[in-house]
Each structure stands twice: as C-alpha cells, then as structure tokens.
Design a protein that fits this description.
The complex is a heterodimer of chains A (499) and B (492).
Chain A lengths: L1 E3 L13 H14 L6 E8 L14 E10 L3 E4 L1 H4 L2 E8 L6 E9 L4 E6 L23 E6 L8 E14 L7 E7 L11 E4 L2 E10 L6 E5 H11 L12 E5 L3 H6 L9 E6 L14 E5 L2 E2 L5 E4 L2 E4 L1 H5 L6 E8 L2 E8 L19 E4 L2 E5 L2 H8 L5 H12 L13 E6 L16 E4 L2 E2 L3 H8 L6 E6 L6 E4 H14 L6 E2 L5
Antiparallel strand pairs in A: 1-12, 2-3, 2-5, 3-4, 4-7, 5-6, 6-7, 8-9, 8-11, 9-10, 10-13, 11-12, 12-13, 14-15, 15-16, 16-17, 16-20, 18-19, 20-21, 22-23, 22-29, 23-24, 25-26, 25-27, 27-28
Chain B lengths: L1 H17 L12 E8 L14 E9 L4 E4 L1 H4 L2 E7 L7 E9 L4 E6 L21 E8 L5 E15 L6 E9 L9 E4 L2 E10 L4 E6 H12 L11 E4 L4 H6 L9 E6 L5 H4 L5 E5 L2 E2 L5 E4 L3 E4 L1 H5 L7 E8 L2 E8 L21 E4 L2 E5 L2 H5 L5 H4 L2 H10 L11 E6 L14 E6 L2 E2 L3 H11 L4 E4 L6 E2 L2 H14 L6 E2 L7
Classes of the chains: A alpha+beta (499), B alpha+beta (492).
C-alpha cells in the first residue's frame, strides 16, 4: 500500500501547483531564510539485476531533496541515494552542482547523510535546527523541497494529521514512528524538511497510493536516533528485541500464566534466535514493564499522556545500550536486563541496497541465497509450487525452525540453457538441501560440494521435492567454461567478502 | 435392488435389438435433460449451506429406469429432475452411485415415477482416435438438436475441475454444447458423453463409452470397487544423465518412481528411485506411454485405470539399485480421505467443532480453493505449502492437518480473535492428528480447555466457567444449529 517517492523520475507527474501558491506569499517570509539550506539532489543510480546477478540493470537518473545540518552535512532519505553511481547537490538559486558522497546510510530508517568535499558549497548557508519535540496534531507545518512539476524550490503547507507507527517501505520490513501531514508531498519531495516554527520536525519520505492528502514524514525522534547512531563513525541500525507476543486481554489466559489480577503485560510466545532478547527472555514470560513504564495488557505504555506501543521505548535505544524489563516468570516477578545488540539476521527479508548479489554458477545452474529480490522475481511465476515454498520459507524460516541446518537458503534462481541442464525446468526456484550427499548450509558449502561428485555424478536435492537433479560430472565440468562464455558471464561466482 | 439390477442386465442386452444403425434416426427417446438444483456446504461456515444453484445437462438412458450422466452435474444435488424431448413434464430422480474420480453418476427415476417412452442406447466399443460423431442435445423448446463433432485426440487427461486422470476424447464441434452429459453417437451407438466444453475454442472433453461400460459393470456387481490407482508418484526418465545414473540401458524405456502413497499396494513392493520398464506385460517408454493394442499410444495410467480394477495384482519389470528385477504391485482404489489433505471436490459435509468461538476443522483442497482463484497467494503460506508439497503423504496413518480456521468473536475469546488458518498441534495438552482425535478428547474431557498452535509456546485458554453460556450465545447469535459435527461411522 505504501510507496516511496520514486527515486528516479522517468515520468514527470503533472501536479497542481496552483493550490499551494496562495499560501506561499504569506508563509515564505518566515521560512525564506532557510531556502538556501534546502538542497536539490541529483543522482544516477543502478540496481543489480537479480535475475542475472553477475551484471547490473539500466542506470537511471532522478532527483530528490535534502537539507543542510550541523557539521557541514546534508541529510536526506536513504531511498534517494541508494545504489548510487553518481551524486550531485545544488542549492536553490545556485547554478553550480557540487559532487557529493554518501557518508552514512540507514536503510532500516530510510535516512542518509551526505558530505560535499568542496567547502564553498556551504558558504552562505546555515544548518537547519531540529525541534526538540514532536509537533501536536493540528500544528501547521511547512514542507520544503524540489518536487516534480518544476525545477525550483517548492513550499507546501498543511497540518499534522496523525502520529503513528507504520512500515517504512524502503526496507519493506521495518516499522517506526511516522508523522502524517495533509500538505502535498510529491515525488521529489523526498528528503526535504517538514518545518514547524522554522525547526525541523520531520523529513518528508513517502506517500500513500489511492488516498488523498496523506503524506508521511520521518519524525525528528527517528532522525535523532540515526544521527546519534552515526556519531561514533558507523551505523549500527535499530536493535531488534526479537520477541513475538500476544496480548493478555483474556482473563483465562492470565490465570493460566499465574498472573495476579493486579498485574498487566504481554506474554511472549516465541523468541527469535537473532534478536537481542534471546537467552534473556523466554516463552511464557509476561513483560510487566519496560524501563519503568508499566505495560498494559494490550502492549501499550503511557508516555507523555499518550498511549503508545511499548516498542516506542525500544525505538529510542541504540545498540550497545540495554533495556530493563520487569517480568512475570514462574509465578514471581523478576527484573531482566536485556543488552541490545546489532541485529544481523540473514533470514529477515528486507529490501537490499548497495550490495552486489552473491551467486555461484555450475553447469548453467545459477544458485543464489534467498533474498527479497529473488522472492519478487519468483512471484512473477506464481503458478509454480516451488515459488510458494519460497514464500513459506521466507515467512516461517525462524518460527517453524526451517533454519536449523542453514545459514541461508540457497535457491536455484536461473538456468542458462545448455544440453547438460536440459531437463531441470521443474527445479527452478527450489531450495537446495543436499549436494552429493553433503548438507548445504550456505553458498560456500554448495561450491565445495560441487567439487566432489559421487561416482561420476552430481546429485542435487531440494526441499519438498522427491525428484533430484542429476548431472554427469564429466560433462558438467566441461560445460562450465562454454556456458559462461556463451551467456557473457564474466565470473562463475561472486562471494561478498564483507559478509 | 437385486431385482432391478437383473432387469437392467437384461435390458442392456435387449437394447442390442433396438440399436439404430442409420444416421438419420430419431434419438429423442435415448437422451433426457437433467436439471439439478444443488447446494454446497460453506467451507468457512461448515454448519451451513451456500445459496442454491441450478445447472442443467443431459443424461443417456441405459436401462428402464437408469440414466448415466457426469458426477459433476449431479454433485451436491438437492433435487434432480428429468425431462424428455418435446415434453414439459419433470420427473424426479435420485443418484444410485456417483464416483467423482471417474466423473460418472448413475441416476434412476424416483420410486413411484415413470419415464415412459424412453429406450436405452447401446454403448459403443469403438475408441478410434479420429472420425466424426453426431452430438445430441436439446434446443430451448426441448426438441432434439443434432450437430457434427470431430474427434481429434484420445489421451489420458485430468478430469475437468479435478486432478484425476481419465481416458478422454478431445472433440471439435460446431454445435454450441449447452450442457454436460450431452451424448455423442457413432454408428448408432453411444460413443461418449461430454464432460466439458469451451465455447471460445469450440473444443470439448468427452468420456468414451468404454469407461462408462466399465463403470456400469462395476455398479451392477456390488460392492462397487471403483477405478484403480497405481499408488505411486512417478516422473519421466528422459534425461540421459539420470538414465545413466539409474543404470537404465534399454533404449527409451522406463519411468522413475518418486514416492509411494502410504496404504497403497505400491508402497509394499515399490520404492522411490525404482525404474519401471514394463508394466502388466507392456513396455513403458521414458515418458510413461505404452502401445495399447486397441487405442494406440496411451499413458500407462490407462493400464491401471482402464484395463484393470482394484485388487488386481500386476507384474512389473523394474530396475532397483542398478539391477533388473521383477515385482508385483497390488492395485488399490485411492480414497480421497487417505490423503494428508483430502481434496473433497464433492464438497461433502466437513466435520467441525465450534467451541468458545474457535472454528476447528481439517484442511481440505476445497477449503483452500474457497479463497478464490488467488488462494495460493492469499492463504497463509504454511498451509498452502503443506498442501502443495505433501498433501498425499501423511507421516502417520490417519494424519490430517487440523486448523483453527477462525474465531467467531465473543467475550470468551478476547485476545485470540486474530488467529486464522493456524495449525493446531494439541488440544487440552494432548497431541492431535486429526479431528477424530479431538472428538475423542471431547468425549473424555467434555470441553476444550486449551488449544496449542504450531510453533507457539503459549496456549490459547478458554474460560470454562464462561464456556457453556458462550457456546449458547454463539450458537444463537451466529445461528449455528449444531456446534459440532462428526461424520457417522458408516460414512467414515
């Protein structure tokens, strides 16, 4: 349902500029001093081609907005500058474009910080200040940026309509606080400031399809979390608690858990092995409070007079900090301190950026670890059983313990046709479990197993399939070079060393 | 009943005399229009039926009171009415026996009614792959309508709307076929009945009379045995690397056994990775075809379904672990309910339990497809995956997939109302394999106290002090006449 502002504007959307003009006259005087600090970002980006992971897709150009903050930095959206090949920034009324660099990027919160080497760029600008607090509903806010419909700075106005949790569509998996405004936010606005009393309260980032006057901004609390995170020179991201819970609104459930009637909380039913809470919290633990805030039976806490989800308190934490829960466990109350660590979960299928896909090709069979792009490509073949299995593995990997023998899921994503692999169609998008009687945990395992055929054959087995691929080892060995050169594949494999 | 069947046999032979050989004969006495009012159970609300529908097709008279038609036409019928050509009178009929795996149903005129002036049509043995047939159906005024059709193919194909393979004529016709079961005549005899027709391509699928004969012969000698199933899953063996790997040297011969169905005869004598070279004396090629002495090249499934019956023991020449050997395979009838996830294409009444608003039932193919065309995308991927990868292969006998299909909101189930299509592993702390286990637990415990969902370490608890009132309230509010339905033992 959510859509981020397209990074590359191939099509100019003709939008109504007449409506906003009326407001501009009176409003601009207040915000005009900030206009120098709102910059336009020109980008050429290029995504890898996940269906042919050895090469990249078409480069595309586009533009977005950003603004200057302290320490001569520019802040913008991650989605504006992801997969960047060439990047320039430009101030309003300045003919010159300056080359810029991405210094930090946080895909989970859709934020990025840029630097410009040429110091003259910052002359005559001053950093825009962040507000200390979130605005209230109905506060009038101003949106600055360079949206579609013209090339110069644009200003729109509206009120804060809602403050809520929502999915950040850039990663497609993370939920954080969002600020909803009814000011027009259009493609190209992405990364521009949303101002209240001349201070930034949010950064414009996504809209909602099939709805009117709904624009979303990343609130100042999330922006500050990002800036604090990168203060030490690297971006760690949000810590993940990794605890699944249900409400304890049912009195029979509370009695079964032995929870006294005067206590409320949420009950955990599953702990993610990659989350911070694993080993500290356990299934059937009832979380009574978080950092001193009492958790209600529906999972909310009272914060500044508002009822918000308890996760809001977790949002404010950085990796390396810890969080304290009061827990009802085995009929008594205990205090549990959970150290929050960097989440490194290979089974969280977020959108992937700024990374080249790993692959290994053998006998024209292209193997790659399961990722979101692979799922997306597979979804176009929705009639095939293997594709539905991928969906199941991606959603139930951890909770159904499908991961117990895997570091990642290796998928046969493509066939480069050659007589050696003529009969493998039905295995496409299958998940490899075993090669030559060796269990496959990761792509490196697969490569290793392929070097040891069994009695002159390679036998590849797949999850949920009774049939196997069988290759004649001698023929397969000879075919490798020919296939790679015929299909223009520069390298048989790519393994990301950093991972 | 015995009397009736005897008459029936006689009549079939008498019918020979009536056999019409001329092309211009009047067939109006051989076919009847069959109008069926039907009503399916609602898989989401298994205690109630969906709205009624009416469909109409044809039946071919095969006995004094007996008519043959497709099972699909009479499925879930609440009323069957027959109409003769040129008559407005509607005569009620009932189903004698319907087999959804064969898509055939024998119906008979209800006791006390009569269908005078109709004659049985003789069934043809001719199963030629080509040639013309005459199609028969009624026009709007119930006058008989003739049309030409060309037989273009004879093959084993899955039934329309069901996964069961059957011997099928593909026909191309100029007549706009207006109902299932319409008859095709060749040389004055019934050549087949239409199972499905596609207006846009003007092609239809037709069941040959030889299959109908097989069915009728079976019905006449109770108990009904049904059509046999091979009891194993197989695949082509064309890939040269695979042939070499399994040590298959004979040219173009052999199919690969992937899995055997639990409970089948095949599971006792066949293994996965066996290569079947010959079946029942016929050589099987690497795509699973054999040369039928009467019909030509045909899928070997016909050797199982068409030429044999359940209970027959079939010799097979196989390669196992690289060595040629011989085995015998006992054919069985595959009962839908043996599967881990039964199809229930006939929408038989599902067993269910509604307790504290929890709707508990077993997963079926019909339940999944009730989500509409896009069910593979829209239904929870866990149960979709179970259906797509292992529906025929329960790990244990009688294992089914028990699900919490949904929750009817009521104060007793506050906090649980988001659960939908989740797999249940335990009831009252006891492991359950199927809904019968749940009924047995209920017999002992009286009520459901706790439900354990797969991969969830917290049980859903029902407040027993509220349960009776909640059940009464739910039954009243949601108009549930029975909160539990267990199929009578005779039907299990």
């Amino acid at each position: 349902m959510h859509r981020s502002m397209p990074k590359f504007l191939f099509i100019s959307i003709v939008c109504s500029i007449i409506v906003t003009c009326g407001f501009c006259q009176c409003a601009f005087s207040n915000e005009t001093s900030l206009r120098e600090s709102v910059v336009k970002i020109y980008i050429t980006g290029q995504r890898p081609d996940y269906s042919m992971p050895w090469q990249s897709g078409q480069p595309g150009s586009g533009s977005g907005s950003g603004f200057i903050i302290e320490k001569r930095r520019i802040i913008t959206n991650a989605h504006v500058v992801s997969d960047v090949r060439f990047l320039q920034v430009q101030k309003d009324g300045d003919a010159q474009r300056y080359p810029a660099k991405v210094a930090f990027i946080g895909h989970d919160c859709d934020l990025a910080v840029l630097t410009v080497e040429d110091e003259t760029f910052f002359e005559g600008t001053r950093p825009i200040k962040f507000s200390d607090r979130l605005p209230d509903l109905n506060n009038e806010v101003t949106v600055l940026g360079y949206p579609t419909g013209g090339s110069r700075l644009s200003l729109t106005k509206g009120v804060v309509s809602r403050i809520d949790y929502s999915v950040y569509s850039h990663s497609g998996a993370d939920q954080h606080l969002v600020l909803q405004v009814d000011a027009a936010i259009n493609p190209g606005n992405s990364g521009g400031p949303i101002l209240f009393n001349s201070k930034v309260v949010a950064l414009a980032f996504q809209g909602l399809m099939f709805a009117d006057n709904i624009g979303y901004g990343i609130p100042v609390s999330v922006i500050k979390h990002f800036l604090d995170d990168i203060a030490d020179g690297k971006y760690d991201g949000y810590p993940e608690l990794g605890a699944s819970y249900i409400e304890t609104t049912n009195p029979a459930l509370c009695r079964d858990l032995g929870l006294p009637p005067n206590k409320t909380g949420i009950v955990l039913y599953y702990l993610d092995p990659f989350g911070s809470a694993t080993g500290y919290l356990h299934p059937r633990d009832v979380l009574l409070s978080i950092d001193g805030y009492k958790i209600e039976s529906d999972g909310t806490v009272t914060l500044g007079g508002n009822n918000v989800l308890f996760a809001e308190l977790l949002e404010r934490k950085q990796c390396g900090e810890s969080i304290v829960f009061k827990v009802w466990r085995a009929n008594s109350e205990v205090e549990v301190k959970v150290p929050l660590r960097i989440s490194n979960d290979p089974f969280a299928y977020r959108n992937v950026y700024d990374k080249l896909p790993e692959y290994y090709i053998f006998a024209g069979l292209v193997f790659s670890p399961l990722n979101r792009e692979c799922l997306r490509a597979a979804a176009r073949h929705s009639g095939e059983n293997n594709v539905h299995q991928l969906t199941y593995f991606s959603q139930y990997a951890k909770i159904d313990n499908l991961i117990k023998n895997s570091d990642e899921f290796i998928v046969l994503i493509k066939q480069l046709p050659h007589p050696v692999n003529t009969y493998i169609q039905s295995f496409l998008y299958g998940i490899v479990t075993e090669v030559n009687a060796v269990h496959i945990r990761n792509l490196a395992d697969l490569k290793k197993a392929m070097s040891k055929p069994l009695n002159g054959f390679h036998v590849i087995r797949f999850a949920g399939m009774d049939d196997s691929i069988i290759l004649d080892a001698a023929i397969a060995e000879k075919s490798n070079e020919i296939i790679l050169s015929r299909y223009g594949v520069p390298s048989q494999e790519f393994f990301d060393k950093k991972q | 009943m015995k009397m009736l069947l005897t008459c029936f046999v006689i009549f079939l032979s008498v019918a020979q005399c009536f056999a019409q050989t001329q092309a211009q004969v009047d067939y109006s006495k051989n076919i009847v229009q069959v109008t069926v009012t039907f009503q399916e159970y609602d898989p989401f609300l298994p205690w109630q039926k969906k709205n009624t529908g009416v469909k109409s097709g044809y039946g071919v008279v095969v006995g004094p009171y007996e008519i043959i038609t497709t099972e699909n036409l009479v499925r879930n019928n609440t009323l069957i009415e027959l109409r003769k050509s040129g008559s407005g009178e509607k005569i009620p009929a009932t189903v004698v026996l319907a087999d959804e795996q064969a898509n055939l149903a024998l119906i008979k005129i209800s006791d006390g009614s009569d269908l005078q002036g109709v004659f049985p049509l003789q069934l043809s043995d001719n199963v030629t792959r080509n040639g013309d047939v005459t199609m028969l159906q009624f026009d709007e005024t119930a006058q008989i309508q003739h049309g030409k059709a060309q037989v273009v193919q004879l093959s084993m194909k899955p039934l329309p709307y069901a996964p069961y393979p059957t011997l099928t004529f593909t026909i191309l016709t100029d007549l706009n076929i207006n109902g299932e079961g319409s008859a095709a005549i060749r040389d004055g005899k019934l050549s087949g009945i239409v199972m499905s027709y596609d207006r846009s391509t003007r092609t239809g699928s037709m069941m040959p009379a030889i299959t109908i004969k097989h069915f009728l012969a079976d019905v006449m000698q109770p108990p009904y045995k049904g059509f046999a199933s091979a009891g194993f899953v197989w695949t082509f063996l064309v890939d040269p690397a695979k042939r070499k790997y399994f040590n298959v040297n004979s040219h173009n011969k052999g199919i690969l056994v992937l899995d055997t169905m639990p409970g089948s005869g095949a599971s006792e004598t066949l293994q996965s990775n066996d290569v079947i070279l010959e079946w029942d004396g016929y050589s099987i090629d690497n795509l699973g075809f054999y040369e039928d002495p009467d019909f030509g090249r045909l899928s070997f499934i016909y050797l199982v379904m068409g030429r044999r019956s359940p209970g027959d023991v079939i010799p097979a020449k196989i390669i196992r672990n690289g060595k040629q050997t011989e085995v015998t395979v006992k054919l069985t009838r595959r009962i839908d309910r043996d599967a881990l996830v039964p199809e229930n294409i006939t929408h038989q009444r599902d067993e269910y339990i509604v307790e504290g608003g929890f709707i508990i039932r077993e997963l079926t193919g019909a339940y999944l497809s009730s989500y509409g065309q896009d069910w593979r995308r829209n239904v929870d991927p866990r149960i979709v995956n179970i259906y797509l990868t292992k529906k025929n292969h329960p790990d244990k006998n009688d294992e089914k997939v028990l699900i919490l299909a949904g929750v009817l909101p009521n104060p007793i189930n506050i906090g649980y109302q988001q659960f939908r299509d989740d797999v249940i592993t335990k009831i009252n702390g006891k492991p359950v394999n199927n809904i019968t286990d749940v009924f047995n637990i209920l017999k002992k415990d009286g009520s459901i106290q706790r439900v354990t969902i797969k991969s969830m370490d917290v049980d859903l608890i029902l407040d027993q002090t509220m349960l009776t009132d909640a059940n009464d309230e739910l039954a009243g509010l949601y108009r549930i006449p029975n909160l539990r339905y267990q199929r009578p033992l005779s039907q299990q």
